[in-house]
Amino acid sequence: MKKLVTIVSIAMAFTLSQSIFAAGDKAAGKQKSATCAGCHGVDGNSANPDWPKLAGQSAEYLIKQMQDFKSGDERKDATMQPQVANLSDQDIADIAAWFSSNKIKPGMADEKVVSVGEALYRGGNPAAGLAACMGCHAPNGAGNPAAKFPRLSGQHAKYTAKQLRDFRSGERLNDAGKMMRNIALRLTDPEIEAVSQYIAGLR
Question: Would 182 be classed as within a structural domain?
């Protein structure tokens, strides 16, 4: 029994020390993110709609994405993989802490399709078996950090639409339980554009 208690105590101490080590330092992350700024902006608010805004995204989600790019098994990108290849777990945690600490700049939605996008985001499409986006990503688009569901509000519509198409085609595979792939399969191209526009303007 004493041996078991000792083993458990050592394991708990090791786990605690690992979690402390893995905690991100945003000041260090700001320095380490210098090469990221060219695409994602100094504070994570990218100017180019091809590249995602990282500001305000949960650190948990950012860590997962960088780790997935680094492994290259479920998410591949010719630009991102070389960028993260030599990052340590601590580097990744620090960079995630920096970008998550900043405030995302709100985007603008195309008013011509925003009503369709809002209906999909808030109510889904029961006829197609499509669940409402807000069930996982929250009514205000803030996401669910504990579940690693990303913040969507304010994201570039072009980037969001591409991710939905990539999930639908199977090019992107890093969604738990194929959740996003199953959702994207039920979306038409016009619906993808509409919900992406709504998300861009969501606050």
Answer: yes
Are 121 and 192 part of one and the same domain? yes
Instruction: Give the range of the structural domain holding residue 194, as residue numbers without chain letter.
Output: 114-201
Angle between helices 157-169 and 189-201 (to 10 degrees): 140
* Overall domain count for the chain: 2
What CA–CA distance (Å, rounded) separates 177 from 195? 22
Interval 116-171: pLDDT, tens: 999 999 999 999 999 999 999 999 999 999 999 999 999 999 999 999 999 999 99
pLDDT tens-digit map of 14-49: 344 334 346 899 999 999 999 999 999 999 999 999
Instruction: Give the alpha-carbon dihedral of 13, 17, 18, 24, to 10 degrees.
Output: 150
Closest by Cα among 65, 166, 171, 49 to 107: 49
Residues 39 and 96 in one domain: yes
Q: In this structure, how many other beta carbons lie within 10 angstroms of the beta carbon of residue 135?
A: 13
The answer to whether 75 touches 174, Cβ cutoff 8 Å, is: yes
Token readout for 114 is 């925003």
